[in-house]
Amino acid sequence: MTTDKQTRVAVLLGSTRTGSLNRRIAEHLREHAPAGVTVDVVEGLDTVPFYNEEIDGDTAPASATALRASVAAADRVLAVTPEYNGTMPAVLNNAIDWLSRPYGQGAIVGKPFAAIGATPTPYGGKWSHEHARHSATIAGALVVEGIVVDESAVEGDPLANEAAVQRLLGALDALVAHEAVVAA
Ligand code: FNR
């Protein structure tokens, strides 16, 4: 069977650090995505102003409009993020806020969504991922059940650990498979 449509996954990065482990994970997923899947890392989340209804609407900042366009064009959304102080980093939370508006019609509404990532703690950022899933649900995304990958980097780089790499790629696969279920 041949498929003529690429499935596009928009990745929202919770870290804007140049040397970010989570960016490297996102880039690994992009480079090793299965055939038929395009992974686009949405750049510039740190240039999007904090959400404020007074700057939204027809004159929304270009950075926010670009974020919305990237997600609107995607078939699915994957947050790849560390944890800051027991929750998701503000830059990711802010992106979800912009993607949730206009209420009920935001770019994230109806998009299959998952949140994964790694931190150098034993818990691998599990609260961040849980909170991102909760926030995305409230924002109107379709959070795919069962995609839970909170990689601990305590023992070293998860990308140097084949089992961890397979868990991360498996999360991408599960997100892709969800669309097949929806489309069936
Ligand atoms: C952290 N870090 C962290 N890690 C964690 O697992 N739970 C946490 O609550 C926090 N809190 C926290 C707050 C702040 C302000 C910073 C800067 C960091 C550590 C964090 O997970 C670690 O620096 C990661 O490597 C950051 O991810 P990137 O940038 O490597 O992708």
UniProtKB/TrEMBL annotation:
InterPro entries according to UniProt: Flavoprotein-like_sf, FMN_Rdtase-like_dom, NAD(P)H-dep_reductase
Pfam families associated with the record: FMN_red (PF03358)
GO cellular component: cytosol
Source taxon at top rank: Bacteria
Chain ranges of the NADPH-dependent FMN reductase-like domain: 7-149
Gene3D superfamilies cross-referenced by the UniProt entry: 3.40.50.360
Gene Ontology molecular-function annotations: FMN binding; oxidoreductase activity
Protein name: NAD(P)H-dependent oxidoreductase
Organism: Nocardioides glacieisoli
Lineage of the species this protein comes from: Bacteria, Bacillati, Actinomycetota, Actinomycetes, Propionibacteriales
